[in-house]
Amino acid sequence: MGIAAAGLGGSPLCAQDWAQQEVDKSPRRHESVAVKYGARSLDTFIAYPETRGKSPAVVIIHDVIAFAPWVENVADRFAEAGYLALAPDMLSGRSPEERQPIRSEGKTVGPARRLPLPQVTADLNALADYALKLPACNGKVCVVGFSWGGDEAFRFATTRRDLAAAFVFYGKCTEPEKIPDIQAPVYGFYAGTDTNVGATIPDTTKQMKAAGKFYDPVIFEGAGHGFMQAGAAPNAKEADKKAWDASWVKLKALRSKFD
Hints:
The chain has 259 residues and is α/β, with parallel strands linked by helices. It has helices spanning 3-7, 17-25, 69-80, 117-133, 148-157, 195-198, 201-210, 227-230, 238-254; strands spanning 30-37, 40-47, 55-61, 84-88, 102-104, 107-109, 137-146, 165-169, 186-191, 215-220.
């Protein structure tokens, strides 16, 4: 039983039976560990690729709501693509109340967005350091994030100079003034109907180009925000499923860059 199945109790997220079933039947090795640094401990799901050699690691940042079965499924898919995948619960240590969305100034604020940014950065650094020490890692670490996690993957690329790559799924560059600090290539995966995040892409493209940074945004027409979760579900809409398929084709093609 993984982190998601063990930690969500009666949450509606447990209705993602399809995701849990795919993880359970996967031939790849999985383990749940506690990544510790200082007084902090991060519950983390690890999926290992089926290879005798060493592999690049990828740290997976979930969306604003919570760690869920589909995150473990994503980690397993990354392992299938040849990556050593680490998926932490960024809300580790938070109470059940702190894991709930709240209303603030007329808006719903997801629990992950209330995490202190210095803590998020420290968590990601600890995870990257942990990954580098794993015998199965080849010494290269990427980061991938979804929605809020996409924002944080982009932001982490401005702080971690030895990242091999950042994969940003429907996330924004929230600190454009720090773009000059980015060393890793940034690959963006965006939904065509996501006007909120989509409106930021032209400016980000210009700013990355002006700073001489590599930025490769791809927009999947007709897909909706969250297509990496929705597109994997058995009842996925056609556009979301196409975006999901195309994303994995690209991620698998990029894998060879990190040998």
